[in-house]
Amino acid sequence: MEPTVVLTIGGSDSSGGSGLQADLRTLAALRMHGASVVTAVVARNTREIADVYPQPTTVVTAQLASVLEDLPVAAVKTGILPTPETAVAIAARMRTGALPNLVVDPVLTVAAAGARRGLIAAYERILPHVTVLTPNREEASALLGWDVFTPADMAAAAAQLAARGPRCVVITGGDFAAGTEAIDVVWAEGTARMLHSPRISGRNTDGSGATFATAIAARLAAGDDAPAAVSWAKGFVGRAIGDAADWRIGGGTGPIDQFGWSALTLR
Protein backbone atom coordinates (compact mmCIF):
# COMPACT_ATOMS: atom_id res chain seq x y z
CA MET A 1 0.00 0.00 0.00
CA GLU A 2 1.43 3.36 -1.01
CA PRO A 3 0.95 6.31 1.37
CA THR A 4 -0.91 9.34 0.10
CA VAL A 5 1.45 12.21 -0.72
CA VAL A 6 0.53 15.80 0.18
CA LEU A 7 2.88 18.66 -0.71
CA THR A 8 3.21 21.73 1.49
CA ILE A 9 4.80 24.91 0.16
CA GLY A 10 5.72 27.51 2.77
CA GLY A 11 8.05 28.83 5.42
CA SER A 12 10.22 26.98 7.92
CA ASP A 13 9.42 28.11 11.48
CA SER A 14 12.38 27.86 13.88
CA SER A 15 10.07 27.51 16.89
CA GLY A 16 8.38 24.48 15.33
CA GLY A 17 4.89 25.78 16.02
CA SER A 18 3.66 26.88 12.61
CA GLY A 19 4.63 26.80 8.94
CA LEU A 20 6.07 23.67 7.39
CA GLN A 21 6.68 22.10 10.79
CA ALA A 22 2.99 22.28 11.70
CA ASP A 23 2.03 21.05 8.24
CA LEU A 24 4.28 18.01 8.39
CA ARG A 25 3.12 17.15 11.91
CA THR A 26 -0.47 17.32 10.72
CA LEU A 27 0.19 15.03 7.77
CA ALA A 28 2.06 12.56 9.96
CA ALA A 29 -0.82 12.52 12.43
CA LEU A 30 -3.18 11.76 9.53
CA ARG A 31 -0.91 8.95 8.26
CA MET A 32 0.05 10.75 5.07
CA HIS A 33 3.46 11.43 3.56
CA GLY A 34 4.38 15.10 3.60
CA ALA A 35 6.68 16.55 0.95
CA SER A 36 7.80 20.16 1.34
CA VAL A 37 9.09 23.18 -0.55
CA VAL A 38 10.77 25.84 1.61
CA THR A 39 9.88 29.36 0.47
CA ALA A 40 11.31 31.22 3.46
CA VAL A 41 13.24 30.64 6.67
CA VAL A 42 11.52 32.38 9.57
CA ALA A 43 13.49 33.22 12.71
CA ARG A 44 10.90 33.22 15.48
CA ASN A 45 9.93 31.88 18.87
CA THR A 46 6.65 31.76 20.77
CA ARG A 47 6.81 35.49 21.51
CA GLU A 48 7.79 37.13 18.24
CA ILE A 49 8.94 36.92 14.65
CA ALA A 50 12.53 38.17 14.61
CA ASP A 51 13.09 38.07 10.85
CA VAL A 52 12.03 36.41 7.60
CA TYR A 53 14.54 35.25 5.02
CA PRO A 54 12.88 34.64 1.64
CA GLN A 55 14.51 31.93 -0.43
CA PRO A 56 15.54 32.80 -3.98
CA THR A 57 12.80 32.04 -6.47
CA THR A 58 15.14 29.70 -8.35
CA VAL A 59 15.63 27.67 -5.15
CA VAL A 60 11.88 27.44 -4.62
CA THR A 61 11.12 26.39 -8.19
CA ALA A 62 13.94 23.82 -8.18
CA GLN A 63 12.48 22.17 -5.08
CA LEU A 64 9.02 22.18 -6.61
CA ALA A 65 10.21 20.67 -9.89
CA SER A 66 12.10 17.92 -8.09
CA VAL A 67 9.07 16.86 -6.07
CA LEU A 68 6.61 16.99 -8.97
CA GLU A 69 8.77 14.97 -11.36
CA ASP A 70 8.95 12.02 -8.97
CA LEU A 71 6.26 11.97 -6.26
CA PRO A 72 2.54 11.25 -6.91
CA VAL A 73 1.24 14.40 -5.25
CA ALA A 74 -2.48 14.09 -4.42
CA ALA A 75 -3.00 17.53 -2.87
CA VAL A 76 -1.06 20.74 -2.26
CA LYS A 77 -1.17 23.38 0.45
CA THR A 78 0.54 26.76 0.25
CA GLY A 79 1.43 29.00 3.17
CA ILE A 80 4.02 31.78 3.13
CA LEU A 81 4.85 33.02 -0.36
CA PRO A 82 7.22 35.77 0.73
CA THR A 83 7.75 37.70 -2.50
CA PRO A 84 5.66 38.51 -5.56
CA GLU A 85 8.26 36.76 -7.73
CA THR A 86 7.85 33.51 -5.80
CA ALA A 87 4.06 33.74 -5.92
CA VAL A 88 4.06 34.36 -9.69
CA ALA A 89 6.44 31.45 -10.31
CA ILE A 90 4.24 29.05 -8.33
CA ALA A 91 1.14 30.39 -10.09
CA ALA A 92 2.78 29.43 -13.39
CA ARG A 93 2.97 25.79 -12.21
CA MET A 94 -0.66 25.98 -11.11
CA ARG A 95 -1.70 26.93 -14.63
CA THR A 96 -0.30 23.64 -15.92
CA GLY A 97 -2.55 21.64 -13.59
CA ALA A 98 0.46 20.23 -11.73
CA LEU A 99 -0.85 21.19 -8.27
CA PRO A 100 -4.06 19.18 -7.66
CA ASN A 101 -6.55 19.76 -4.82
CA LEU A 102 -4.90 23.10 -4.08
CA VAL A 103 -5.51 24.68 -0.68
CA VAL A 104 -4.16 28.21 -0.29
CA ASP A 105 -3.61 29.85 3.09
CA PRO A 106 -2.74 33.42 2.02
CA VAL A 107 -0.26 34.35 4.75
CA LEU A 108 0.36 38.07 4.28
CA THR A 109 1.48 39.19 7.74
CA VAL A 110 5.16 38.33 7.19
CA ALA A 111 5.50 40.05 3.82
CA ALA A 112 7.80 43.05 3.81
CA ALA A 113 5.91 46.33 3.59
CA GLY A 114 7.21 47.09 0.13
CA ALA A 115 6.32 43.65 -1.18
CA ARG A 116 2.82 43.36 0.25
CA ARG A 117 1.04 45.23 -2.54
CA GLY A 118 2.82 43.24 -5.23
CA LEU A 119 2.12 40.00 -3.38
CA ILE A 120 -1.59 40.77 -3.16
CA ALA A 121 -1.58 41.43 -6.91
CA ALA A 122 0.22 38.12 -7.48
CA TYR A 123 -2.54 36.28 -5.64
CA GLU A 124 -4.90 37.32 -8.43
CA ARG A 125 -2.95 34.87 -10.63
CA ILE A 126 -3.27 32.14 -8.02
CA LEU A 127 -6.97 32.39 -7.12
CA PRO A 128 -8.38 30.91 -10.38
CA HIS A 129 -6.58 27.63 -9.65
CA VAL A 130 -7.56 27.23 -5.99
CA THR A 131 -9.80 24.46 -4.67
CA VAL A 132 -10.10 25.90 -1.14
CA LEU A 133 -8.96 29.37 0.01
CA THR A 134 -8.59 29.83 3.79
CA PRO A 135 -7.93 33.48 4.74
CA ASN A 136 -8.60 34.86 8.19
CA ARG A 137 -10.43 38.18 8.46
CA GLU A 138 -7.24 40.26 8.22
CA GLU A 139 -6.04 38.40 5.13
CA ALA A 140 -9.45 38.64 3.48
CA SER A 141 -9.46 42.38 4.19
CA ALA A 142 -6.05 42.76 2.54
CA LEU A 143 -7.03 40.75 -0.53
CA LEU A 144 -10.27 42.70 -1.02
CA GLY A 145 -9.27 46.18 0.12
CA TRP A 146 -12.03 46.63 2.72
CA ASP A 147 -12.37 45.72 6.39
CA VAL A 148 -13.91 42.33 7.13
CA PHE A 149 -15.18 42.17 10.68
CA THR A 150 -18.65 40.73 11.33
CA PRO A 151 -20.00 37.33 10.23
CA ALA A 152 -22.06 39.19 7.60
CA ASP A 153 -18.86 40.82 6.34
CA MET A 154 -17.22 37.38 6.24
CA ALA A 155 -20.04 35.99 4.09
CA ALA A 156 -19.81 38.92 1.67
CA ALA A 157 -16.02 38.63 1.53
CA ALA A 158 -16.18 34.89 0.86
CA ALA A 159 -18.56 35.47 -2.04
CA GLN A 160 -16.34 38.18 -3.53
CA LEU A 161 -13.23 36.03 -3.26
CA ALA A 162 -15.03 33.02 -4.76
CA ALA A 163 -15.95 35.19 -7.75
CA ARG A 164 -12.21 35.43 -8.48
CA GLY A 165 -11.87 31.70 -9.01
CA PRO A 166 -11.66 29.48 -5.91
CA ARG A 167 -14.21 26.69 -5.79
CA CYS A 168 -14.59 27.07 -2.03
CA VAL A 169 -13.67 29.93 0.32
CA VAL A 170 -13.46 29.74 4.11
CA ILE A 171 -13.11 32.97 6.08
CA THR A 172 -11.89 31.91 9.51
CA GLY A 173 -13.11 33.82 12.55
CA GLY A 174 -11.27 32.15 15.39
CA ASP A 175 -9.50 35.44 16.10
CA PHE A 176 -12.67 37.12 17.38
CA ALA A 177 -11.77 38.43 20.83
CA ALA A 178 -15.18 37.82 22.37
CA GLY A 179 -17.95 35.27 22.29
CA THR A 180 -18.38 31.65 23.25
CA GLU A 181 -18.19 30.28 19.72
CA ALA A 182 -15.57 30.12 16.98
CA ILE A 183 -17.34 31.00 13.75
CA ASP A 184 -16.05 30.37 10.24
CA VAL A 185 -17.95 31.24 7.07
CA VAL A 186 -17.81 28.83 4.13
CA TRP A 187 -18.79 29.75 0.58
CA ALA A 188 -19.32 26.83 -1.75
CA GLU A 189 -21.61 26.16 -4.70
CA GLY A 190 -23.06 29.66 -4.57
CA THR A 191 -24.11 29.53 -0.92
CA ALA A 192 -22.64 30.79 2.33
CA ARG A 193 -23.00 28.86 5.56
CA MET A 194 -21.57 29.31 9.03
CA LEU A 195 -19.61 26.69 10.91
CA HIS A 196 -19.99 27.00 14.67
CA SER A 197 -17.90 25.35 17.37
CA PRO A 198 -17.34 26.10 21.06
CA ARG A 199 -14.50 28.54 21.67
CA ILE A 200 -11.68 26.69 23.42
CA SER A 201 -9.81 28.76 25.96
CA GLY A 202 -6.05 28.41 26.18
CA ARG A 203 -2.89 30.24 25.29
CA ASN A 204 -1.64 27.67 22.76
CA THR A 205 -3.01 28.34 19.30
CA ASP A 206 0.16 28.67 17.20
CA GLY A 207 -0.12 26.73 13.97
CA SER A 208 -3.91 26.49 14.02
CA GLY A 209 -4.30 28.20 10.64
CA ALA A 210 -1.58 26.12 9.00
CA THR A 211 -2.99 22.94 10.49
CA PHE A 212 -6.52 23.81 9.32
CA ALA A 213 -5.44 24.34 5.70
CA THR A 214 -3.23 21.24 5.70
CA ALA A 215 -5.97 19.06 7.17
CA ILE A 216 -8.30 20.27 4.41
CA ALA A 217 -5.71 19.28 1.79
CA ALA A 218 -5.33 15.87 3.42
CA ARG A 219 -9.06 15.22 3.35
CA LEU A 220 -9.28 16.36 -0.29
CA ALA A 221 -6.49 13.90 -1.08
CA ALA A 222 -8.52 11.20 0.67
CA GLY A 223 -11.52 11.90 -1.58
CA ASP A 224 -13.70 14.30 0.42
CA ASP A 225 -15.44 17.15 -1.35
CA ALA A 226 -14.47 20.65 -0.23
CA PRO A 227 -17.29 21.35 2.28
CA ALA A 228 -16.80 17.97 3.97
CA ALA A 229 -13.03 18.49 4.12
CA VAL A 230 -13.51 21.92 5.70
CA SER A 231 -15.92 20.63 8.35
CA TRP A 232 -13.61 17.73 9.24
CA ALA A 233 -10.58 20.00 9.47
CA LYS A 234 -12.38 22.43 11.78
CA GLY A 235 -13.07 19.60 14.22
CA PHE A 236 -9.48 18.36 13.99
CA VAL A 237 -8.08 21.81 14.82
CA GLY A 238 -10.48 22.25 17.72
CA ARG A 239 -9.30 19.01 19.27
CA ALA A 240 -5.65 19.95 18.69
CA ILE A 241 -6.13 23.28 20.48
CA GLY A 242 -7.91 21.60 23.38
CA ASP A 243 -5.23 18.92 23.70
CA ALA A 244 -2.54 21.61 24.04
CA ALA A 245 -4.40 23.71 26.61
CA ASP A 246 -2.08 22.79 29.50
CA TRP A 247 1.22 22.85 27.58
CA ARG A 248 4.00 25.21 28.59
CA ILE A 249 6.34 25.65 25.65
CA GLY A 250 8.07 29.01 25.61
CA GLY A 251 6.91 32.27 27.12
CA GLY A 252 4.31 33.23 24.52
CA THR A 253 1.74 31.52 22.31
CA GLY A 254 2.64 27.85 22.16
CA PRO A 255 1.86 25.27 19.47
CA ILE A 256 -1.24 23.14 19.18
CA ASP A 257 -1.16 19.37 19.64
CA GLN A 258 -1.93 17.58 16.36
CA PHE A 259 -1.05 14.15 17.77
CA GLY A 260 -2.96 14.27 21.03
CA TRP A 261 0.35 13.86 22.85
CA SER A 262 -1.14 15.30 26.03
CA ALA A 263 -3.21 12.15 26.39
CA LEU A 264 -0.16 9.87 26.12
CA THR A 265 1.94 8.54 28.95
CA LEU A 266 5.56 8.02 27.98
CA ARG A 267 7.48 5.42 29.99
Q: Would you write up a description of this structure?
A:
The protein has a domain at 5-142 and 205-248: UDP-N-acetylmuramoyl-L-alanine:D-glutamate ligase. It has eight helices and nine strands. The protein has helices at 19-29, 57-68, 84-95, 113-126, 137-144, 151-162, 208-221, 226-243; strands at residues 5-13, 33-44, 49-54, 73-78, 102-104, 132-133, 168-171, 181-188, 191-198. The protein has a nine-stranded mixed β-sheet with strand order 3-2-1-4-5-6-7-8-9. Strand 8 and strand 9 (191-198) form a beta hairpin. The longest helix is centred in the C-terminal third of the chain and has 18 residues, at 226-243. The radius of gyration is 17 Å and the shape is globular. It starts with a strand and ends in a 24-residue tail after the last helix.
